[in-house]
Amino acid sequence: DAGITQSPRHKVTETGTPVTLRCHQTENHRYMYWYRQDPGHGLRLIHYSYGVKDTDKGEVSDGYSVSRSKTEDFLLTLESATSSQTSVYFCASHGTVSTDTQYFGPGTRLTVL
Amino acid sequence: QKEVEQNSGPLSVPEGAIASLNCTYSDRGSQSFFWYRQYSGKSPELIMSIYSNGDKEDGRFTAQLNKASQYVSLLIRDSQPSDSATYLCAVENSGGSNYKLTFGKGTLLTVNP
Fold first, then answer.
1. Helix %, strand %, coil % for chain A, to 5?
2. Are A111 and A11 in contact (CB under 8 A)?
3. Burial of A42 (0-12, 13-18, 19+ CB in 10 A)
4. Is pLDDT above 70 for A99?
5. Which of A8, A13, A39, A57 has the lowest CB atom count within 10 Å?
6. pLDDT band for position B80 (50/70/90)?
7. Rounded distance, CA A46 to CA A62, Å?
8. Residue A83 — φ and ψ, nearest 5°?
9. B103/A95 Cα distance (integer angstroms)
10. Residue B7 touches partner A, C-beta closer than 8 Å
């Protein structure tokens, strides 16, 4: 398995507060992704990165921003958390071999009260 | 909007039986297809990848791909209680080089002893 860690693993916060989730990978993978997983919706892509400082939006990017200043780290920020952002967040990474695939971190369970 | 549809389940099979999981996709240009297994409270883990039409076997797992019908399936032979999990079908988006995946919502499989 790819060495991907996420922090924190659990977080409870209040509406309107900023929240940053961290993803760290030790595989020197170029591509990194943030997903959220909700019952009835499956895994949905929030943002992704195709290199240091290179990021783009996924299908559910509203209310989220990302940054990638180093290959190994990909940060997801909720500028002002809302209850609709209560979810499980997964980070994934992918190497540059076309037959490779995405490997997932352990997830972060975020509750916004 | 690229779509991936899976039979919603839940699917219940007795131990030792064959479990059949199905997936259809809308992106006709897709070339890479994956099956992930997700245990409750855990992150998705890759169990099969398939890129060419036909069957691909790995132990008790067989993936089948028919690009003309835009259909991919996963067969699990001699199902075991440890196979009880949600199975996610993922299709790599065509038209780009960022290895983005679109996931189905998953099928919950229960294998009864």
1. 5, 60, 40
2. yes
3. buried
4. no
5. A39
6. very high
7. 8
8. -60, -25
9. 19
10. no
